């Protein structure tokens, strides 16, 4: 079993493919796509946490607090502040908000297994619009997904049926499946093309079931010792899905076609009866139509390095599209106006790389022209450029000795420092040349510095200038100096009496 390795709850960058797991206590654990723990976010309210979903621009995470019947909205940007609380309890008292899904217009739908059992509709600003009095089986409007027609909601009610409701005409439809042969049925996700004809996946307690377009069970997914499958969501790769067990608090990633376990088991370390929801940044949603997603969502790099963003283009069936021209633009920040183009490969991906030379935060987006000759724009992503120095230098000195020029320096701290190089020039206008054959390895760390000595033996008398370079683990170079000294071998030279300082 893979362990989550949970040691802290420090803030971290959220990226496309990150997995968000509802673990109760008003909290969600965040993992990368390989299942490595990143951080924990909490709403401060407490209680069970269940379904969650990102908005179409991927800058907000909508989570549900089941116990308190609320939808809590987090900012993707550090430190992931709570931007809004939608109190669905005001409309459906005691309804226990559980499942959330967006339509293409940005409206939010919230399912409730209790209270009056209704599905509630809110606009993109969180204003209540409408209630749908849907038919129920064993327990309310439990989990749901919206069809690509933007009209048909598929949902479960903790029984054996997959129910459907028309949210445009406000009419109950015939069941998609009247008996999936296992219960209770919980989270479900439609498969491409998203109208039901491609079937769906549903977590049905003892296993996860795949249904075809006629509602027949055609495949099952399971893992040893797991008999309480509850949460489920699709991965952005288009070939996998994630599912979790509320009894063991383990979760996995499965290959849709083969049923093979690709990641997991990963245990949240929270004990039993806690894992009640999973969502994924950039998860495939069949209701979004032709779309483009940009990643990573945010990143921080030193200036004078390059940054690459990747765009993925999909058609209205959720399939990646090759040969599409993508336009990339830095729309604000110190590098605003920087643009580029790329054509998607067989994986539907195109990349854009640019050099950051100024401190600040860039906002980047991408777009393409769809089959209807309309411009489709991606989510915005954030790039922060920092003028970082791996080394806090106390001093750098060039000192005459009887044996040559002693280069001496001391650091107060060193962050990700790989080591040092020394450069020398013999006159004004001459290029600096590196004089050490091997990198002088770093000895300090983030809290403790170190002292260093290097002896240079010039070939002749004269005026020499030296520069000190520190090189961090990412290959970023920072120069210090110059220090200039006159080399004179006279024994009584005042330079011989210069003592190496112990501090500033």
| Computed Rg | 29 Å
> How far apart lie the N and C ends?
53 Å
CATH topology of the largest domain: Methylamine Dehydrogenase, Chain H
Q: Would you tell me the overall average pLDDT?
A: 88
Largest sheet: 6 strands, mixed
CATH architecture of the largest domain: 7 Propeller
Can you count the beta strands?
42
Structural class: mainly beta
| Number of self-contained structural domains | 3
**How many separate helices?**
0
For CATH, the homologous superfamily of the largest domain is named as YVTN repeat-like/Quinoprotein amine dehydrogenase
User: How much helix, percentage-wise, in residues?
Assistant: under 10%
| Low-pLDDT ranges | 1-11, 490-504
Portion in strands: over 45%
Tell me, briefly, the overall form: elongated
Give the SSE layout.
Elements: E1 2-3, E2 19-24, E3 27-31, E4 37-42, E5 49-54, E6 60-65, E7 70-75, E8 82-86, E9 99-102, E10 108-111, E11 119-122, E12 128-132, E13 143-146, E14 152-156, E15 163-166, E16 171-172, E17 188-190, E18 200-203, E19 208-211, E20 217-221, E21 229-234, E22 240-245, E23 250-255, E24 261-267, E25 277-280, E26 291-295, E27 298-302, E28 305-314, E29 325-332, E30 339-343, E31 349-356, E32 360-369, E33 375-377, E34 381-386, E35 391-401, E36 404-414, E37 417-425, E38 433-434, E39 440-441, E40 451-456, E41 462-472, E42 477-487
Describe this structure in words.
The structure is a single chain. This protein is mostly beta strands and 504 residues long. The protein has 3 domains: 17-287, Methylamine Dehydrogenase, Chain H (7 Propeller), CATH 2.130.10; 291-386, Immunoglobulins (Immunoglobulin-like), CATH 2.60.40; 391-497, Immunoglobulins (Immunoglobulin-like). 0% of the residues lie in helices and 48% in strands. Strand 18 (200-203) and strand 19 (208-211) form a beta hairpin.
């Amino acid at each position: 079993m893979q362990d989550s390795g949970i040691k802290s709850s420090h803030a971290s960058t959220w990226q496309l493919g990150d997995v968000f797991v509802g673990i109760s206590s008003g909290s969600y654990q965040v993992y990368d796509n390989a299942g490595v723990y990143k951080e924990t976010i909490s709403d401060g309210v407490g209680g069970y946490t269940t379904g969650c979903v990102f908005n179409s621009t991927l800058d907000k995470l909508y989570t549900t607090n089941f116990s308190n019947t609320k939808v809590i909205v987090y900012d993707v940007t550090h430190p992931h502040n709570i931007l809004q609380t939608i109190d669905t309890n005001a409309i459906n008292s005691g309804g226990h908000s559980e499942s959330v899904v967006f339509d293409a217009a940005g409206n939010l739908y919230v399912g409730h297994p209790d209270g009056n059992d209704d599905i509630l509709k809110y606009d993109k600003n969180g204003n209540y619009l409408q209630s749908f009095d849907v038919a129920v089986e064993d327990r309310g409007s439990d989990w749901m997904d919206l069809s690509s027609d933007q009209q048909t909601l598929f949902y479960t009610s903790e029984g054996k049926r997959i129910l459907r409701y028309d949210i445009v005409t406000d009419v109950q439809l015939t069941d998609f499946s009247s008996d999936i042969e296992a219960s209770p049925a919980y989270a479900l996700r439609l498969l491409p093309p998203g109208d039901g004809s491609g079937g769906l996946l549903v977590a049905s307690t003892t296993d996860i079931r795949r249904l075809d377009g006629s509602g027949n069970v055609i495949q099952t997914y399971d893992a040893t010792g797991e008999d309480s499958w509850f949460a489920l969501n699709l991965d952005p790769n288009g070939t996998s899905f994630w599912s979790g067990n509320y009894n063991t608090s383990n979760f996995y990633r499965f290959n849709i076609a083969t049923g093979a376990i690709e990641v997991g088991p990963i245990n949240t370390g929270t004990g039993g009866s806690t894992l009640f929801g999973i969502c994924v940044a950039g998860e495939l949603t069949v209701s979004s139509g032709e779309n483009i997603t940009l990643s990573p969502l945010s990143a921080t790099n030193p200036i004078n390095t390059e940054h690459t963003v990747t765009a993925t283009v999909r058609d209205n069936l959720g399939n990646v599209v090759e040969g599409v021209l993508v336009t990339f633009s830095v729309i604000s920040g110190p590098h605003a106006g920087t643009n580029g183009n790329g054509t998607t490969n067989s994986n539907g991906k195109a990349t854009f790389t640019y050099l950051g030379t100024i401190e600040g935060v860039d906002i980047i987006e991408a777009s393409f022209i769809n089959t209807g000759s309309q411009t489709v724009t991606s989510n915005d992503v954030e790039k922060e450029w920092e003028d970082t120095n791996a080394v806090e230098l106390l001093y750098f000195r060039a000192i005459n000795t009887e044996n040559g020029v002693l280069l001496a320096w001391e650091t107060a701290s060193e962050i990700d420092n790989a080591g040092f190089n020394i450069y020398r020039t013999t006159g004004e206008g001459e290029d600096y040349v590196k004089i050490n054959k091997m990198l002088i390895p770093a000895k300090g760390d983030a809290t403790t510095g170190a002292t260093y000595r290097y002896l240079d033996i010039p070939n002749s008398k004269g005026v020499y200038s030296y520069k000190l370079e520190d090189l961090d683990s990412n290959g970023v170079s920072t120069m210090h100096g110059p220090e200039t000294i006159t080399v004179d071998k006279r024994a009584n030279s005042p330079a011989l009496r210069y003592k190496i300082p112990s501090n500033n």
